[in-house]
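Bench log. Compound arrived from synthesis this morning; before running ITC I wanted a structural hypothesis for how pantoate sits in the protein. Inputs:
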Amino acid sequence: MHIFKHSAELLDFVRHQKAQGKTVGFVPTMGALHKGHISLLEKSYSENDITICSIYVNPIQFNNASDLDKYPRMPEKDMEMIKHCCDVVFLPNNEEMYPEKPSEEYDFGHLDKVLEGAFRPGHFYGVAAVVRRLFEMTEPHNTYFGLKDYQQLLIVKSIAKQCNFDINIVPCPIVREFDGLAMSSRNLRLSKEEREIAPLIWKSLNNAAKILLQEGIEASKDFILDTFANNPSFKIEYFEWYHPEKFIPSQQSDEQFVGLMVVWLGEVRLIDNIIIKK
Ligand code: PAF
């Protein structure tokens, strides 16, 4: 595995590979890798000649200083985990990523103003700034993003359009633990007791989907509110049904829905979603 810390050297390497006709896949991460990341890397590895993984905890996408402090960091373990499905690891530091404070502007329309955008002010600006720089530093043909961060995926597609990047963005399914909990680096911060009850998130999303189809949107939202009101270890931040493409609140007559949820379990913020088609 090649390891680069400087973007100029990485870009030289990438351009040299592309000049030889090789295809390049890219998976951006913040480390603390789990099977969800591995599934993205394995997909890239099977579809491209060269797979790059970046590991960079992007400070400007955290709207909460303690969340940034507590974000798990384990680069050696990460590198061990990805050797079978990665050719290049990019490990930039803050000066490399942001020699100057980002000041570019983006227009995401309503996309950065609702749900994650509303609850985490500035988060999507930070994601946009880092993804733009990473795309410029890696110039990939294909890039792989998990569907767990559904709204982030739409933001990334919008960045690619606004910046005219000719990059194929490949959405990848959520990878779950045996009991349905969506894989997340944040799961490491759950206590034993919290980890045991965390599968309620996915279970309640599935039940809400059934209720949506049988009894309607409001009944399914009431079900979610009741479920978490009866389980006080959880605090629900939001649960909404949205149109998966227009990303506006669903109408009962829609053909497809995405149910988007954030709950707090103790001090850990967990995100999940379910996509259904009629
Ligand atoms: O999804 C993530 O892990 C991060 O938001 C990303 C895309 C690597 C940007 O820091």
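What the model suggests: The CA atoms of residues 260 and 273 lie 5 Å apart. The beta strands are 2-4, 24-29, 50-55, 88-90, 142-146, 168-172, 234-242, 256-265, 268-277.
ITC booked for Thursday regardless.
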